[in-house]
Amino acid sequence: MIALLQRVSQAQVLVDGQSVGAIDAGLLVLLCAERGDSERQSDKMLDKIVKLRIFSDDAGKMNRSVQDIDGCGTTGELLVVSQFTLVADASGGNRPSFTNAARPDEGRRLYDYFVARARLVHCKVQTGQFGADMQVHLVNDGPVTIPLRIASESVID
Question: With b meaning 16 or more CB within 10 Å and e meaning fewer, what string describes 63-84?
């Protein structure tokens, strides 16, 4: 499973010109399930994301997690957006290959699982729309952008 985290002061996802998800201070999480991923990778990824200390403390050091910053009550917000292009492999030419992405039905299942689990452990979770043509607007705070990858135990052919 791959995620690209962007620390944001605000972010919003539009589908057909309509807002489907928006947050203030927190993390924009671009998320991609890979072939062979399971709930185990999803759980590990979520645990890493909510505990990753990439928000500044009072001394200006990155020492706080999204659970520690002001946002929705006492924590920051999450905007989770599916993005299969995170698995892009452009090593073989000029057109990227996405063969390492989970099949669409499996990708949706794992995305939905991730979002449901995130809503159990975090106070405000917004989403994009799986499989839609989305426009993502954000104000990257810092800028801080962190790539994460939780490898699957095996790849299914």
Answer: ebbbbbbebbeebbbbbbbbbb
- Domains of the chain with bracketed CATH: 2-147 (3.50.80.10)
CB-based contacts of 111, cutoff 8 Å, min separation 6: 31, 33, 80, 82, 130
Catalytic positions: 83-85
Q: Is the pTM of this model over 0.85?
A: yes
| pLDDT tens per residue across span 28-70 | 999 999 999 999 999 999 999 999 999 998 899 999 999 988 6
How many angstroms separate the CA atoms of 22 and 10, rounded? 7
Q: Which residue has the tokens 């939905």?
A: 112
Beta-carbon contacts of 132 under 8 Å, excluding residues fewer than 6 positions away, are 15, 20
Strand partners, 80: 29, 127
